[in-house]
Amino acid sequence: MGRAFEYRKAAKMKRWGHMSRVFPKLGKIITIAAKEGGSDPDMNPKLRQAIQNAKAENMPKDNIDAAIKRATAKDAADMVEVVYEGKGPHGVLVVVECATDNTTRTVANVRSYFNKNGGQLVNSGSLEFMFSRKAVFEIELPAGMDKDELELELIDAGLEEIESETDEEGKTTTIAYSDWTAYGTMHDALENNKVNIIKANLQRFANSPVKFNDEETESILAFIDKVEDDEDVQAVYTNME
Q1: 42-77, pLDDT tens digit by residue?
Q2: Whole-number Å distance between alpha carbons of 87 and 89
Q3: Among candidates 108, 101, 81, 126, which has minimal Cα distance to 234?
Q4: Of 105, 123, 200, 204, which one has the fewest beta carbons inside 10 Å?
Q5: What's the mean pLDDT in 164-175?
Q6: Is residue 99 a contact partner of residue 80, using CB atoms and an 8 Å limit?
Q7: In this structure, are residues 139 and 176 in contact, taking their beta carbons and an 8 Å threshold?
Q8: Burial of 21 (0-12, 13-18, 19+ CB in 10 A)
Q9: Which of 148, 86, 146 is nearest to 116 (CA)?
């Protein structure tokens, strides 16, 4: 089972639950990008990609525009990105990425999720070596270009792996991976090769995944769902196989 399948499966949710949970999270990233680099997507690559990711999730244009405007509002709260690390149920290692305007609230909430599920937060950076950070691009190949041809074009830009999988409905998903430090060069190389970038982000992959039994897995997944429901949480990564 390839990572493209796992990437796609992890993104599937019921439509309305997906919208209510994901749109505010996407809006925060758009606001942060606009505040950091300006509100013009043509001059701000991070904002341009944040908008592209939001559109891939069918986020309405009005929501996107509102998120950009929040970055320049006089009374806008400062939004920051923070990362928390910890040990969850059954010793699973967990990295939680957040975007928040109140770190005191966020860390208190995240700590409570861990504490209530037999886990605890650990010092920042303690789990860094347990995960590899990758740039992940979901892409659409240009007409007439096959995967092998594109791979040759992207190697110098930092490509590590590219894979495609077709689901039961005949839809093909192609994912390209690089080290996170090559995000910019990969993004530019894809655009230069006329490749449509559907989504692009940085993800963490466990270097030594651990297999848990069914009961433990169910408990861990329930814990992850609880953490992901928090409005400040952007992504949750574990070392669960």
Answers
A1: 999 899 999 999 999 999 999 999 999 998 887 767
A2: 7
A3: 81
A4: 123
A5: 85
A6: yes
A7: yes
A8: middle
A9: 86
